[in-house]
Amino acid sequence: MLRMAAVALPMALSATVAGAQATTLPAATSLVAKYAAAVGAPAFVGAKAIITKGGMSMPAAGMNATFQMTHLSPNMMSMVTTIPGMGDVTVGYDGTTAWAVDPMQGPRILSGKELDQAKDDADRRTMVRQPDMFTSMETIKDTTMNAERCYLVKLVSKTGRESHDCFSATSGLIVASKSTQKTAMGDIPVVSLLSDYKKFGDITVATKTVMELMGQQQILTISSVEISNAAGITITPPPAVQALVKK
After folding, report:
1. 33, 187, 236, 247: which sits with the fewest CB atoms below 10 Å from its CB?
2. What DSSP assignment string belongs to the chain?
3. Where are the domains of the chain?
4. What is the CATH number assigned to the segment(s) 27-231+238-246?
5. pLDDT (tens digit per residue) in 83-140
């Protein structure tokens, strides 16, 4: 009986500790609410148009580019990346049609999972992690990512996409994310490290994002964010995409 007690006691203690650790994890909804407050979600979602400009680099390839991203209320988006010596790479969603155009593959109309991804990227409610845009949110663990203690949360969007965000234990901001990008070449796992948050008007954004994918790094830096009344701003498919739509 003593031997049994000697075995049972550590097991009971371990279970108690594990249970205590599990209950200390903050609820995903509270983490998301803290994040929304930190980035100014009401202003972010309520803006008629947001124009973001910056640069993109791939150090291993010696490539540097510039980009302009436009979000137009309620759920439209376009991004034009200009690569010297190569041309423009364009992606967008006008509320109905999603597209991609690049010098190598030409124009494409996105469908299936790529279309779902474009819808999520275009909707600012998803970008600020508005709870009603997701079917589930779950805090997975207390961990460290991007050299900062954070809580890892698994999110499943209404389009079925799964992603993981790590919310800083101190600031509440997202310091790292894990997702799978849907591309013409297939699924590509991506780890994004976010830092250098800055305030532009009433919204706060990470001005540096280091994306690790396919054994390489892409570094995205934001230089300006303009909140606009959307006067004169439209988002429509490029002519080459419009021709595909007609077909």
Report:
1. 247
2. -HHHHHHHHHHHHHHHHHHHHHHTSPPHHHHHHHHHHHHTHHHHHH-SEEEEEEEEEEGGGTEEEEEEEEEETTTEEEEEEEETTTEEEEEEE-SS-EEEEETTTEEEE--HHHHHHHHHHH-HHHHTT-GGGEEEEEEEEEEEETTEEEEEEEEEETTS-EEEEEEETTT--EEEEEEEEEETTEEEEEEEEEEEEEEETTEEEEEEEEEEETTEEEEEEEEEEEEE--TT------HHHHHHHH-
3. 27-231+238-246
4. 2.50.20.10
5. 998 899 999 999 999 999 999 889 999 999 899 999 999 999 999 999 999 999 999 9
